[in-house]
Amino acid sequence: MPIKIHSSLPACSILEKENIFVMTEKRAATQDIRPLRIAIINLMPTKEVTETQLLRLLGNTPLQIEISLVRMEHHQSKNTDKSYLDKFYIPSKKIFEKKYDGMIITGAPVEQMNFEDVDYWKELCSIMDYAKENVFSTLFLCWGCFAGLYHYYGINKYLLEKKMSGIFMNERTTEGEPLLRGFDDTFPIPQSRHTTLKKEEILACKDLSILAESAEAGVTIIKSKDNRQIFMTGHLEYDTLTLSEEYYRDIGKGMKVPLPKNYFPTNNVNRMPTSYWRATAHLFYSNWLNYYVYQETPFNFTN
Predict the structure, then answer these.
(1) pTM of this prediction?
(2) 282 carries an active-site annotation
(3) Which of 51, 66, 111, 237 is catalytic?
């Protein structure tokens, strides 16, 4: 089944070429079913790229999904034209006018800053407070994960000595978890971050469960025990070349960043990387939508 998005959103034509079922507003209006409402709080600088990555994963399920792309009102984007945001995004204040079945809060390039110093922090806190009662399940990614854990549970982030970048293998830490149903015993997750969590702080919180961790990357997937909040430190949505693009960008800025681990074949930057996390990504998002959004949300949850 399709994802419902604006017909002229650039991601629409990209996904159609990949045979992802996309439905325009006009066609969706003729269907007598209630689609799942998913809000995406896109805090990434390359908004078009992130949109496409997430919509590709959300569109590969048997559910009709209505997408709302959300922008921060108190933040001036440096990489996306205002006209683009005005056309395809709703301002954050519109979030409070309806309930959502699911929400995704993305990463952001501000992880080395204190949370309170981020110019849209109060705005994001208002959204997270609203989501606690008005969104059935929220997925927090990378910086969004650290932000959510800090805001809800007071769990701190800690700066790493050097950037963690690459593909890291993970193991499940619990059995029978629907979110990881069908996963291999070990599975890859791309990471691209400057901060980390302390496992003991998460274990000390009675409302949280650790679902997966990595010997190299630490705790990687956490959830609240009521299943309303899912936290992931990494980026399963990343395309094959995203890490290489970030690496060359940082090198071009004169930054001293490590070569992404387990990514370039034989660690040779002249060799093309290949994706080996795509199947894991599709399964993760499918499980989230199915088990923690679709099957749990009451039919009349939205207004």
Answers:
(1) 0.88
(2) no
(3) 237
Residues shown for the chain = 303
38-61: per-residue pLDDT in tens?
Answer: 999 999 998 999 999 999 999 887
Burial of 300 (0-12, 13-18, 19+ CB in 10 A): exposed
Catalytic residue selected from 66, 111, 142, 213: 142
Please give the span between the terminal C-alpha atoms of the chain, in angstroms, as a whole number: 23
Give catalytic status of residue 237 as yes or no: yes
235 is catalytic: yes
Q: pLDDT means per 10 residues in the chain (303 residues)?
A: 61 62 51 78 93 92 88 83 91 94 96 95 97 95 98 97 97 94 96 97 98 98 96 98 96 93 96 97 95 76 55
Q: What angle do CA 134, 138, 139 make, to 5 degrees?
A: 170
Strand partners, 218: 214
Question: How large is the C-alpha radius of gyration of the chain?
Answer: 18
The one-letter code for the residue type at 4 is K
